[in-house]
Amino acid sequence: MYLVADISVEICAAKSCKLCTQYCPEANTILYSDEMGKDQGFKYGSAYVAVDRCKGCAQCVWVCDNMAKNNAIKMIMIDQLPKAALTDNITYGEKSTTAVLASPVVG
Amino acid sequence: MSLDYVKFSNGFEKFMPKEYRDMVEHGPFGKKVSVSQVGSFKEVLEEHPMCAGCAMTLFIRLAMVAFPNPEDTITVGTAGCGRLAISQAAIPFVYGNYGDQNGVASGLSRGLRLRFGDKPKDVVVMAGDGGTADIGFQQVLHSWFRKERFTTIMLDNEVYGNTGGQESGMTNRGAVLKMAPLGKKFEKMDMVQMAKVAGCAYVATVVPNNPRRVESVIKKAVLIAREVGSTYIQAYTSCNIEYAIPTDKVMEDAKTVENDRYQFTEYVSEEAKQYLTERYGYKEFLAKPAAAIPNKA
């Protein structure tokens, strides 16, 4: 098992600073969806992690804790994920992203 | 320049490769994107085998987002860590022999100008400190003295990270590394000063802990290199393996180093300032209005 980043939608959608999307060294890994937060009644959208691509460096955790001071990202074991995002099913700018996240494969 | 030409002829969409269609439909080809939109479009860079938490990767990723016209950009690289990521992008990558990258880029940029005339094709060299300051030093300096019009970016990790940690010309004095156990005996090379002496039109040092600044620096360097002359960016991209930086502390280290010895500096020649202002509407180089003279009467 290995660690991946997991973003709390509740905290992220309240602040929506988008800093983690800019500081992740992996491309197309921390993505941002407007629908994810707004569909759940939050003010903004939320960032989420394409866990297939996450290498577990935890740079986003440092950025979220120390630069944004939101503490929304935690590193957790991949099999403990409450919601799994599958890279293959993520299409950019389409609602299907939310659908995949709403019906997680694991957990 | 209009961005309208990057579109498919009617009926031919399905014959284009999927990767290219993705770049046009969901990526940055044919439209302008910025670092603040990252995460909501498909990036040029794709999955790569660089180490987890590598600051060099972060810089390369930001640079690829910042290219003014990624669909018209060709990157040139050489041996080193950086090429592992640069080659995994949806834009052409040319691999020079070790140290050859600026010679290859000189020929490439001249050839593209002959072939495409005034339609800009950007050539961007991204190489490590070994490729730029040690092994490729001669060709780098010659391309600058000849005012070849392309951008040179040094990914300065201050070590030969790919081969086990030997000292490079850009390593700091006294640094003890795995393959340099006695510590480096000489000072770090001052490539910024050398770039200015060699006549580069734009010289900047930058650390990737400020993504918007990286974006602005890359954009300016690439635009100036289209017409004015050589441009040089030196980026501190720490090697978390050789310098034993925990991956979650990489940005903290970047911040410390930025405050300590890698402050943001920018040199823009007068000609380049005028070019950016007149051609691309940059306002930061306009003469500031003279302060009102206090009325003593």
List the helices and strands and how they pair.
The complex is a heterodimer of chains A (107) and B (297).
Chain A: E1 3-7, H1 9-15, H2 19-23, E2 30-33, H3 34-38, E3 46-49, H4 59-67, E4 73-77, H5 96-102
Antiparallel strand pairs in A: 1-4, 2-3
Chain B: H1 18-25, H2 55-66, E1 73-77, H3 82-86, E2 93-95, H4 101-116, E3 122-128, H5 129-134, H6 137-145, E4 151-156, H7 191-197, E5 202-206, H8 211-227, E6 231-236, H9 250-260, E7 265-268, H10 270-280
Parallel strand pairs in B: 1-2, 1-3, 3-4, 4-6, 5-6
Antiparallel strand pairs in B: 5-7
Helix pairs in contact in B: 2-8, 4-6
Largest β-sheet summary of chain A:
2 strands, antiparallel
Task: State the name of the first-level CATH class of chain B.
Answer: Alpha Beta
Helices of chain B, by number, come to: 10
The proportion of strand residues of chain B reads: 5-15%
Q: Overview of this structure, please?
A:
The complex is a heterodimer of chains A (107) and B (297). Chain A is globular and about 35 Å long. Chain A contains five helices and four strands. Helices cover 31% and strands 17% of the residues of chain A. Chain A has a two-stranded antiparallel sheet. A two-stranded antiparallel sheet of chain A has the order 2-3. Chain A is an alpha+beta fold. Residues 86-107 of chain A have low confidence and may be disordered. Chain B is of the alpha/beta class. Chain B has one domain (50-280): 3-Layer(aba) Sandwich (Rossmann fold), CATH 3.40.50. Chain B has ten helices and seven strands. Chain B has helices spanning 18-25, 55-66, 82-86, 101-116, 129-134, 137-145, 191-197, 211-227, 250-260, 270-280, and strands spanning 73-77, 93-95, 122-128, 151-156, 202-206, 231-236, 265-268. In chain B, strands 2-1-3-4-6-5-7 form a seven-stranded mixed sheet, with helices on both faces. In chain B, α8 links the parallel β5 and β6. Chain B is globular and about 65 Å long. The interface between A and B is medium-sized, with 29 and 32 residues.
